[in-house]
Amino acid sequence: MAEPITERDHEQVRRLHTEGKSRNANARAIGRSAPAVSKIAGLEGPTFAGDSRVARRGRGPAGRCRRAARAARRRNPLNGALR
Fold it and tell me: pTM to 2 decimals?
């Protein structure tokens, strides 16, 4: 059974996260599993979404609009036939 998560683990994850380290890099640095680091991060607030430009692409109103437009094009068999 794994050792309980300590306050020191919390402090290290906070520090490493502010340095921009990934979840897996944090796990290696503190000697914990990646899921344990995710659990700590969930309690602390930081998230490990990767590069925000990639992680957030497609989310929000603009992404929903693009997805709806693609779905409409797939449903319409005559789409583009008149061009």
Answer: 0.53
